[in-house]
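As a warm-up, study this chain.
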Amino acid sequence: MNRLQKISFLLAALIAAIAFTAQAQRYSCSDLDWPDQIASIREHVAAACDEVVEIDGRPFARVNATFLRETAGDVTLSFLMPDGNTVIETFRPPEDFRVTVDDKPMAFHQLTHGQKLTLLIPEKE
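Now compare it with the structure written out below.
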């Protein structure tokens, strides 16, 4: 590989690294436009957001929580905060809202108290 080829290769690698970094920085928990369905608990969900993952070009907030109960459509979760504390919140998710447990989609009323959940909350469309 001659000197010009080496420089071209390094330049291409640098451009790819910059593009990757720009894409990775494109989404952060604090910048997401949260869906209306979580408006009542938005503050704590945003604070509990671990990271933003991209699925099919759409950003999703990844949030860890523990299921506490579901009563007449109202769901109570304990959100794990980055500092290790937890915040308990109750909200009413859309009827078609599902969580995945052991690779199986489930409705909240199918969960048991104390089940650990990872929620992927899509950015508002």
